[in-house]
Amino acid sequence: MGSITISWLAALFGLALAIFLIFKRINPVYALFAGAIIGCLIGGASFAQTVSIIEKGTQSVMGTAIRVLAAGVLAGVMMESGAAETIAHAIVNKMGEKLALMALALSTMIITAVGVFIPVAVLIVAPIALTVGKKSNISKLALLVALSGGGKAGNIISPNPNTIAAANGFHLSLSQVMIVGFIPAIFGLIVATILSGFLRKKGPIVEDGDIKETEESKSLIPLSKALVAPVLAIVLLMIGPIGKLVHVSCLETINIDAMYVLPFASLVGALIMGKGRQIPHFVSNGLNRVAGTVLILIGAGAIAGLISTSDLSIQIVHLLAKIGLPGVYLAPISGILMGLATGSTSTAVILATGSFGKAILATGTGALAAAAMVHAGATVIDEVPQGNYFHITAQSMHMTIKERMTVIPYEFCVGLTMTVVATILYGFILK
Predict the structure, then answer these.
(1) Which long-range contacts (CB under 8 A, 24 or more apart) does 251-258 make?
(2) Residue 51 contacts by C-beta under 8 Å, 6 or more apart in sequence?
């Protein structure tokens, strides 16, 4: 069976079909597969070639899927043990009401950065945010901008599926991608704090009913124990990069994959917290949390197979050249477009790296710079209504769809800031 190049029009049609089906509330996995199959067939591929393209695309995401399953153990421990909630309470209590919005943004950033998925991080911090909002007369709009903006900042420096996808897509270590996301993340946190401050008195206020439905009295575990799992994971992941930075040869050679680090650190953390008997529950819950993500990654791999077999990336590079933009912009643009299309950061990164990765590197952009720009770009407008994040965050803050829509422009500003910083820093200054 010979190779085939799918028309870029057919690839776009397949992607558009997948997006349309997602909008119609068809399961995203089946929507992505349907778009990939129809795109291949109308692009001239035979039934056998279509199967081959789909298989190749899904095989390309298996490495990412395995590491996402490993990340599920950490997510399960952090969420189910109460460790994430302990960290959030500690930050908010320490910083006080005067710095409430900064504290909420920082809390969500840190909880996401230590391995909790961003929708879940918002769910964890939302009850605290609503309580603070009621006491300090802060609007729901300002609260969610702080939470979502902080979560976006934490998401590009975390061992989460999107970071794993960016690392695997460009054949890098997870720690490398986490490190290059740090400076853009700080800018994202700053912008989220400033924007939420401006919006403090704008939009719907927190009602008594919101607090009654969400506020719970829980005995929190000690902060020192809550930090063990994430700190140990970060230290183990950073040994190699730190060794290279300080030129210590014995450390440089240590490069422990996230597949080992994340479960190991999670189990040690659970034991330190005195919750060893609950480990099976934590692991099971973590698996349930990531199962949907893994399935979507497989669907994204299928449509990435379609796009990578097409000449779409070549056409986009030609378009950039015609309008006078450097090829380096392909990296952030691909992340932004895929985020808009799928409403998911992790799916966007998978599609962008799988579909445009080779074309991005062909422009002369380095792999690490490409990963940083694609990853940041995927956070710009991934909060669109066809994605789960939009609806989960709306429910967590007791907002209507109309009220939730008003948050999108400010989330866009946070993501765009991180993308601009990543592009200037890694696309031009440190390229």
Answers:
(1) 255/173, 257/67, 257/173, 257/174, 258/67, 258/70, 258/71, 258/159, 258/164, 258/174
(2) none
State the amino acid at position 377 in one-letter form: G
User: How many CB atoms lie under 10 A from the CB of residue 219?
Assistant: 5
SS3 state at 310: strand
Instruction: Tell me the pLDDT tens digit for each residue of 291-345.
Output: 887 888 888 888 888 988 888 878 887 888 888 888 899 999 999 988 887 788 9
Assign residue 137 a region (left: φ > 0; alpha: ψ between -120 and 50; beta: otherwise): left
Task: Assess contact for 143 and 196: CB atoms under 8 A.
Answer: yes
pTM of the predicted model as reported, rounded to 2 decimal places: 0.85
Give CB contacts under 8 A, 24+ apart, made by 233-240: 233/74, 233/114, 233/115, 233/159, 233/261, 233/262, 233/265, 233/266, 234/114, 236/261, 236/264, 236/265, 237/159, 237/173, 237/174, 237/175, 237/178, 237/261, 238/175, 238/179, 240/173, 240/175
Contacts of residue 79, defined as CB under 8 A and 6 or more positions apart, other chains included, come to: 116, 120, 124, 285, 286, 289
